[in-house]
């Protein structure tokens, strides 16, 4: 760092802000060609080097080979990265002190900052470029959290300093903003500040991710001009120390989330991807040569002029002594008929078997899948095997996503902790919470129900909801409330049924009593009648 020229004119003190900014900015610029290569491979726009085209090719054939260069890419970088990106799905946050308690403040900050969408960009940068960056600002509008691009951001390895490049098109000014931490002797953070260096410029010096034409050219052409920063920046005013929220959390306001080694998911496998593209280019060339077979005619006496005995002369098509046009003589066509001497011999190029090339390509894809920890069925549709074997092949991807989730969790908790403190919740600086993730391999409903059935009687209901169904704490709370409502409704229905059953019984008893009383009355009347009859009879007698 001491040997480099400071980008800020006049500020070249070793360890000073000018040299720290210069060191970080130079590392950012040095990383740009790699970023160009990674984006080019992720977009499937890499090209086989033009030196692969045969040097003896004529101008017409060169155009055909150039087309092969542009269409031979097999974009395997994107599915390798997307296999991880699409499986990183945060659902919320909970306090570490109480596993069942939601951190609603963190959830609210996540939602208000639109992190559901911004996190996807962070995951994409993390898997493609190996680094993702976010900036926490004090202003609540538009939000406390802003995603920074790896194309304009660089954080030191100790995460005590960072630089962010920006360009103001309205005022034609480009800026480098330095963020630094100052520590006490015991390692605690004593100050957090930022300084901005500016320079007038009609155009930006560094690239944006949207500058695809320039990016593809840098990646595919070794002679393309790489971006660089001039050394005529000047400090713009005093340092900004309004970062109390970052100081209380002992962090820079610029947070870095990095993959292992700071490398993207497919960056270590660029040579293998290049080899696959090269094999496809060679196969295209062989197939093209077979589609247009080479033919030759060998004759012992290649006369240059017609003679009287030639059929063309006898038919009056040409005159004896005219020069023979062999190109016209061997004209191709569905009704063409060639008149050749009796000693003429014909030759046609043979067919080259491309099966070994196809087999070798399939083997390379299998090796790439194994080396990158990507299930083969993601990279190749022609996969057979047992379900157990497929599950074993996915273990590498599961472990990889779990590692990326742990790294993202560290960044998310730091980001949200600073955002909460900036929003006025000072106690958030001392709270510990963690990210809750959806299952990496979402099981089917049948598998979830089977697992829940096996866990019944072994695990509590809430644990079954978490482990077997992957439910969040909010989902569990809603389910428990629904369960209580259902139990209350069932109890109420049973009570009503019991009441209704009791009323019917009482009614039946009353009816039975009514019939018995009627019988008694009837018997009494009969007795009275019989008595009356007897007395009257006796009287009459």
Task: Tell me what the structure shows.
- The chain has 541 residues and is α+β, with helices and mostly antiparallel strands.
- It contains 17 helices and 12 strands.
- Strands 4-5-6-7-8 form a 5-stranded antiparallel sheet. Strands 3-2-9 form a 3-stranded antiparallel sheet.
| Class computed from helices, strands and strand pairing | alpha+beta
Order of helices and strands: HHHEHHEEEEEEHEHEHEHHEHHHHEHHH
- Please list the strands of the largest sheet in the order they lie side by side: 4-5-6-7-8
Low-confidence blocks of residues: 520-541
What's this model, at a glance?
This protein is of the alpha+beta class and 541 residues long. It is built from 17 helices and twelve strands. Strands 4-5-6-7-8 form a five-stranded antiparallel sheet. Strands 3-2-9 form a three-stranded antiparallel sheet. The protein has a two-stranded antiparallel sheet with strand order 1-12.
